[in-house]
Design the sequence.
């Protein structure tokens, strides 16, 4: 990581799950976790990376609580929801999570059909991550105008 400090101009929320209780814990600037520890905990995908110890407790990826954690963005002017694993979540569950947000101010980004097909070859196989990178680059270029319009109405 280029810095060990929380971004000063960004109200960044990093959702995690406390392993023992199953409770969602959201880390932010000024809290008990250092920025690197909070990032590691928020990306500690079960069965892929071990839980991260913070203050004598252990935390894992917040998707164990909610795939989107979109409820944390309720009330904000603009929301960009990144759902890289949307194909693993039922539309009903996602609709329920997004219902708390203003649909006119929410942009959902999730893998397109080509990327979902690539996922089927081995989501956690580092030998094919470059494939995901390239499909993501192509999709980002295709959706750039839509995203820009959402942020600059």
Sequence:
């Amino acid at each position: 990581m280029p810095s060990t400090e929380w971004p000063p101009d960004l109200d960044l929320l990093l959702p995690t799950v406390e392993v023992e209780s199953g409770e969602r814990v959201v880390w932010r600037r000024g809290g008990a976790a250092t920025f690197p520890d909070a990032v590691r905990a928020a990306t500690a995908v079960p069965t892929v990376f071990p839980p991260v110890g913070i203050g004598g407790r252990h935390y894992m990826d917040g998707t164990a609580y909610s795939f989107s954690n979109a409820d944390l963005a309720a009330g904000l002017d603009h929301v960009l929801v990144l759902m890289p694993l949307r194909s693993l979540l039922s539309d009903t569950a996602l609709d329920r999570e997004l219902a708390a947000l203003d649909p006119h101010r929410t942009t959902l980004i999730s893998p397109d059909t080509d990327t979902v097909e690539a996922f089927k070859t081995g989501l956690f196989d580092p030998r094919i991550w470059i494939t995901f990178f390239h499909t993501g680059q192509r999709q980002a270029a295709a959706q750039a105008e839509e995203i820009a319009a959402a942020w600059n109405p």
User: Anything to note?
Assistant: The chain has two domains: 13-64, 73-151. Residues 73-151 form one domain. The two ends are 33 Å apart (CA to CA).
